[in-house]
Amino acid sequence: MDNASLATWIEDWMNQVESAAGRKPILYTYPYFADPYLQPTLASSIPLWIANYDVSQPANAAGWTSWTFWQYSDTGSIPGVTGNVDLDVYSGTLTDLENAYGSSPAPTAYTQFNVFVLDHPYSAIAVGDVTYVLWTALDTLGTSHFYKGTGVMNINGKDVQGVVYQGNTYLPWYSLASGIKAEKLWNFYM
Length: 190
What we know:
Layout: H1 3-21, E1 27-29, H2 31-37, E2 48-51, E3 69-76, E4 85-90, H3 94-101, E5 111-117, E6 120-127, E7 130-134, H4 137-141, E8 145-149, E9 152-155, E10 158-161, E11 163-165, E12 168-172
Parallel strand pairs: 1-2, 2-3
Antiparallel strand pairs: 3-4, 5-6, 6-7, 7-12, 8-9, 9-10, 11-12
C-alpha cells in the first residue's frame, strides 16, 4: 500500500470508529513511523497521541505541529504494577480533558500525616494501602533524582510516577532509596 492509500484507509477507518463510538478517535504513532509513512493531510483532521522518548518536547511528525497526548516514557513505575509502564501527558488542562473525553472519577480521598526520614519530618499521604512521601525526602537520603514534570521523578535512572497533591509531588515510600522499609511503630486506639 502506498502512502496516499494508507492515508485514505486511515481516514476511512477513523470515520467509521467515530460513527460507531460517537467520539473522535486518536491516532497513536511515533515519529519514526509517521514521517516516512503518514500523509500531512491527516494532521488537519485527526488528533495525535505521539510516542517520543528521551526528549524535552515531542517532535513534529508528518504534518502535526501539536499533539493531544504525549507518551514520554516506557520505563515508568506505578505501585501495584510489576515491570515498566508507559507514562503519558495530556496537552491541555484537566477541564479540557474532561470536556473532550468525559469527566474524571471522583477524587481519591487522601489521608495526610507526617513521617520521619533520617530524623527529618516530611509530609506524607496515604492512598489506599500505599504511602507517598514528599519528594524532598530524596535530598535527605542522597538519592540521585530529577523532576520530569506531571508528578514523574527520575530516581536513579528509572521514572517513578508520583501523586500530585495540593501542588506538591509525593512519591511511593519504597521508591525513595533501595532497601528502605516502612515499619508500623504503634497503634492508637480511641
